[in-house]
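Lecture notes, unit on protein representations.

Consider one protein chain, 208 amino acids long.
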Amino acid sequence: MIGIETAIPFFIASILLGMAPGPDNLFVLTQSSIYGPKAGFFVVLGLCTGLLLHTGAVALGIAALLKSSAYAFTTLKLLGVLYLLWLARLAFRATRQEVISERANRRSGWQLYRRGIFMNLTNPKVSLFFLAFLPQFVNPEAGMVALQMISLGGLFIFATLLVFGSISLIAGSLGKRLGQSERAQKILNRIAGTLFVLLALRLAVADH
């Protein structure tokens, strides 16, 4: 198990990384502003579930395989790019009434949860980041390395839940107010669509 002297600096670093602008927190920001804070939190849970799977991949050595295989990296990256472009298309075409309808749809929480998982898992950079970040806080003399990796991953997910949950609450509350205006809702949709396109381009040019 990891000691308190390792857990504290790791948790602080995780909080700061969660606050730095990146694909995941921008994704939470856009989804929360369009569909509201509750829907945004479902996205956050999906992203954290994806992080849980990335943690397992690092602990089992799968992430190392992804790093060594250019084909696997490119395939996963392209899936992520196509998914982001599809989300951009939905955002650009969405009307205010469609957004209101999706907010009211009981299944939308599950859909957004799955959206968060897919968004996270199709970004190969997350696994490679974990592969580079987690071992820095592992002490081979402190016990099983895989168990330490899982513990650090869980701590990182908790930090992410706090930061992204706050983002979803703030952005969702603001977006809900703006969404009462049809013009404001249209602007929010265009901003979200543009961000999805930019995130897709960023992922497309990511190096292996």
